[in-house]
């Protein structure tokens, strides 16, 4: 642990620090039980007020596997959460960052999301409609291109996490990482062959690569598909131009052409078309 992290912990209220350490110690006693992740989430709740928690197992080119959910209202589970695991994750900025090699650590949504993400239909559908306005994220490498993600959500009923609270979560990241790695080993998330133990019922399509290579492939050029994917992820024209290393006017031209070819008029219609395509592609 760095000196800066150590100072952050020292500056915590004594009671919260004591509850965190006691909660984490209790979680370690339950490390090989189904209750372990709930105990970890409860320990984190002593540090910051968190409305809901989602813990998932993630592996390159495979859908995330839900390990634990807490505090997510029942009315959102089918309409948002189940759709997320069925294909919506393909546009999630954290999943995309992990796919692109995001290092383990602690991150806030604003550090990961593209510049226009908070105006995107994905954010409106999977965050705002799910009662969530911001997300913080622990990512832990558990071996062989496999990671465990722990998302802490803040909704409209709670205050946004302050810079100090985010620093506090960063400070305890090494302890969270140690716990999750030990949990993965004790609960055999990775088999002896060092592959993820995904249930046989999980459909491994559509993978991120499959989705982005095939959506609109019947009518769109490869460059138009790339621009469509950037729009769906929440990139602005400027950001898309920088990422694809083309001129902004070229981006606008491709966007206009792909809208014409897909017979749509807006980013909202593009998002709806992509989600419907995902649903049909899984049938």
UniProtKB/TrEMBL annotation:
The record's Pfam families line, in alphabetical order, gives: GerE (PF00196)
Q: Which GO terms describe its biological process?
A: regulation of DNA-templated transcription
Q: Does the keyword Transcription regulation apply?
A: yes
What SUPFAM superfamilies does the record point to?
C-terminal effector domain of the bipartite response regulators
Output the Gene Ontology terms for molecular function: DNA binding
Keyword Transcription: yes or no?
yes
Instruction: List the keywords (alphabetical).
Output: DNA-binding, Transcription, Transcription regulation
Query: Taking every annotated instance into account, which residue ranges of this chain make up the domain HTH luxR-type?
Result: 213-278
Top-level taxon of the source organism: Bacteria
Family matches, as InterPro entries: Sig_transdc_resp-reg_C-effctor, Tscrpt_reg_LuxR_C, WH-like_DNA-bd_sf
Q: Which PANTHER family match?
A: DNA-BINDING TRANSCRIPTIONAL ACTIVATOR DEVR_DOSR
Record's protein name: LuxR family transcriptional regulator
């Amino acid at each position: 642990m760095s000196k800066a992290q150590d100072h952050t912990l020292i500056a915590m209220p004594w009671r919260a620090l004591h509850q965190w350490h006691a909660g984490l110690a209790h979680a370690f006693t339950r490390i090989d039980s189904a209750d372990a992740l709930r105990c970890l989430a409860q320990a984190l709740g002593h540090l910051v007020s968190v409305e809901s928690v989602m813990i998932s197992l993630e592996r390159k080119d495979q859908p995330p596997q839900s390990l634990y959910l807490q505090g997510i209202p029942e009315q959102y589970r089918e309409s948002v959460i189940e759709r997320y695991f069925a294909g919506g994750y393909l546009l999630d900025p954290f999943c995309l960052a992990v796919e692109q090699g995001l290092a383990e650590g602690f991150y806030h949504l604003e550090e990961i999301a593209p510049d226009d993400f908070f105006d995107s239909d994905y954010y409106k559908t999977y965050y705002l409609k799910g009662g969530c306005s911001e997300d913080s994220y622990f990512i832990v490498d558990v071996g062989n291109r496999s990671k465990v993600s722990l998302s802490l959500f803040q909704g409209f009923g709670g205050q946004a996490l302050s810079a100090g609270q985010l620093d506090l979560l960063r400070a305890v990241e090494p302890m969270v990482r140690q716990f999750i790695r030990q949990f993965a080993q004790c609960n055999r998330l990775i088999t002896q062959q060092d592959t993820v133990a995904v249930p046989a019922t999980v459909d491994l399509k559509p993978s991120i690569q499959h989705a982005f290579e095939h959506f609109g492939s019947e009518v769109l050029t490869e460059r138009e598909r790339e621009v469509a994917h950037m729009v769906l992820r929440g990139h602005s024209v400027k950001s898309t131009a920088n990422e694809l290393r083309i001129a902004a006017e070229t981006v606008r031209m491709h966007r206009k052409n792909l809208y014409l070819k897909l017979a749509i008029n807006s980013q909202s219609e593009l998002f709806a078309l992509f989600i419907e395509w995902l649903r049909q592609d899984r049938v």
